[in-house]
Specification:
five-stranded mixed β-sheet, two-stranded antiparallel sheet, 58% helix
Amino acid sequence: MQQRVQKCQRFRQQRDEARRAVAQKEVELARQREQLCELQDRLRELEAENRRLTAVPCRLPDDPPLESHKYGLRMICLAINLARVVGLRPSERALKVFWEWLGIEQSLPDWTTIRTWLMRLGVAILEEPLEAVDDRVWMVDHSNQIGPEKVLVVLGVRASQLPPPGETLQHKDVRVLMVQPGTHWKREDMALVYDQLAERCGPPRAVLCDGAVELREGAANLKNGHGHTIVVQDFKHKAAIFLKSLLEHCPRFAEFNTAMGKTRSAIQQTEMSYLTPPSQKPKARFMNLGPTLEWASAISWLLDHPEAESRRGIAAERLEEKLGWLRSFAAELVTWHECQQVVNAGLRFINEQGLSRGAAERLRAILDVTAKNAVSQQLADRLVGFVAATEAELQVGERLPMSTEILESTFALYKQLEGQHSKGGFTALLAGFAALLKPATEKSVRRAFSKVSVKRVREWAKTNLGTTLTSKRQALYTEFRSATEITTAI
């Protein structure tokens, strides 16, 4: 009996505990339901706020139209800077994509308008007055596309404003002094152009060029506060000349190039197309030897590593048949690669340190680390001697640039802007060349547009370009169509 009573008491105790637990759960459930209601209310508020915000169109910064223009300075600068980076037609498409994404309905400039803006800014930069200083260096070179016409471009940088040692020249450090198309560029032509530029901005301390006779000797009569203007030859071009003299008449190098040409024809349309050697530039082979030697080194490694993933799908016999000839050039490739390393090390030094008294000695210390064989040591000796002879013309404490790579990259910017038309002859777009080096700003655009009109751009193009190749081609087709229409009608 007593056991039953105890058992009942235990059950009652368990029942009471269960009831208390249920009560606690009900309280917790009520609290959670209340929180859920609050969260649902907050969600509805946020959704309403989101609908309110999205209903309001995106607001762009104020950009009132420039006087006598449809667009403001912000839009003009944006369009020009986009064109500098991605090109003219792509800049128009990019603007449309972003404006659609922002949900903005607004008239946008087309690529021809952007082109005109860029040309106005470029002509304004070319016609800006220049102060006469005695430490300016002219970087001079020609560029041609098709036909006899070449464009002379002169960049200017002050020796006192060069980047510190260890840093290379950037586009922002230089400015375009002249863009001059022409078909005759003999010594006397260059001398006349140099004199005209000297009248505008004073004679230079130095003329830096690639060594072309007309560019060097045309500067012979220039005089400045230091006496005669010195002529500095570009290090990269000189290195290519030295490299050419060492390798051009080497029978093994000729055999290598012949074999490489045959290999390109043999595999470029096969499953081995990704192993095709790089194309060489006939006029600048020794300035662009690096990619060829890197390809040869990569293929030589591939031949010696049958487990390489890059060989998958190619039979060992076929790889040997088409590319095994490289094995016979193993020793020569070591020598040639070392020569290229000497050139690279020298160019890096010149780009970062420039030319100054003692540069040859410092260059020697760098090249001695790389030049191990007789050929590369001979190349290093020539490069050091070249720098030593040039630095002897400098004053104590003077430092000048000795590389035209910044000028070459400027030509590349222009060709990128031209796009597929870069091989079709120079056009009026050349007027915008000077605007490619630095971003357009509201200040620069306002100043440029106040001085250079669309009419002035047309005058510049007519004076400097005359009838362009493109215009002549269009005139031919127009004349042809008119003649054939008349013949057909008769």
